[in-house]
Amino acid sequence: MTDATPPAAGSRTPLPLVPGEGEPRLRADAARNRARLLEAAARLAAEHGAANLTMDAVAAAASVGKGTVSRRFGDRTGLLLALLDHHERRLQEAFLAGPPPLGPGADPVQRLLAFGPAVVRHERAHLDMYLAAEPGRRRFTVPANQVRRTHVAVLLRQAGVGVDAELTAYALVGTLDTALVDHLLTERGFPPERLDAGWRDLVTRVVGTRRT
Amino acid sequence: MTDATPPAAGSRTPLPLVPGEGEPRLRADAARNRARLLEAAARLAAEHGAANLTMDAVAAAASVGKGTVSRRFGDRTGLLLALLDHHERRLQEAFLAGPPPLGPGADPVQRLLAFGPAVVRHERAHLDMYLAAEPGRRRFTVPANQVRRTHVAVLLRQAGVGVDAELTAYALVGTLDTALVDHLLTERGFPPERLDAGWRDLVTRVVGTRRT
């Protein structure tokens, strides 16, 4: 099992929070090798689109055999999920350890308000990759979504909002689902600002009656 | 195109509201024939599970050739979507024309509060069929979801809630997504009452600051 494999449905393993807590410690050269393959894959995806990414092309671009890519990532979906994880970690660093209002230091409600627009901006920047790796029915259990939900639930609790924080986190993070954002922006033609405003209004209403 | 086919992505066709507005008028014998096939399919799905439903079995149970089933529904997914539509119409009748608080006559906020638990109860009763027909990326454009969103947006406007009703409807109806409900009930082990309470709390918070 590579570190990019999402936990099985119903798995109770701890959330894979930044920076890679609970991952098997790769030996330094293996980690370098993996990073090199991911860089090659990210470059190819940026040039030709994530939908056109193949294991063969990554092997050729990194000057290794296809077997090396397969051993590291399993299959194409495994590679795409690892690549997504690579991008998602930058977003996670921003909301878990970056500057306020997204990161620590700001009021939890301010951090909640900043979270939605940051995720939508991030998804728009990497939309074709998110869509190419779209995990379908696994979408609720992929680590990235667990991290997002945990973050939102923690902020709701910190803000003293008297809600079922876990369930409310599903509702709020669900509005940032990649396929939904793509549907609203591309098929419905909503401007991104409308999504940002909708998120802020929803968060404001949810925290509005908090018991502090 | 059968009347069960969801509109193409980005289609701007009018919503297929109950009772089948905008559908091609089937001749009476064709409509009877179709109803007979759907009854056979519903019976087989109830007996053996929707996941095990085949075109051949429906043809045999209704004593017609497989070609008749194919001409009517296209493929297995078309048949499952038609069957789902059949069930969904009963739910739609309940919230569009049934007794209050779900149907007309009650305060719009009371109707909104009743809507979530009614949908969750309905989905639980037909969960294996909803999951067997799970339309994946098409989930935002299937008619059933458009009808649900329209209903919620109309109630939000009637209640005088000063929100982006259309976008808020995506957020609220998204919490009732079949795959999400299944994930929460089956994989996470949440009791259905927790989902109902979560819906009521979310609606109460959203309408809480309404400008009437």
Automatic annotation (TrEMBL), chains A, B:
Residues 1-23 are annotated as: Disordered. It holds the Pfam family TetR_N. The keyword 4Fe-4S does not apply. Signal peptide: none annotated. SUPFAM superfamilies: Homeodomain-like (SSF46689). Keywords: DNA-binding. Residues 54-73 bind DNA. Residues 31-91 form the HTH tetR-type domain. GO terms for molecular function: DNA-binding transcription factor activity; transcription cis-regulatory region binding. PANTHER family: HTH-TYPE TRANSCRIPTIONAL REGULATOR RUTR (PTHR30055), POSSIBLE TRANSCRIPTIONAL REGULATORY PROTEIN (PROBABLY TETR-FAMILY) (PTHR30055:SF209). This is TetR/AcrR family transcriptional regulator. It comes from Saccharothrix syringae.
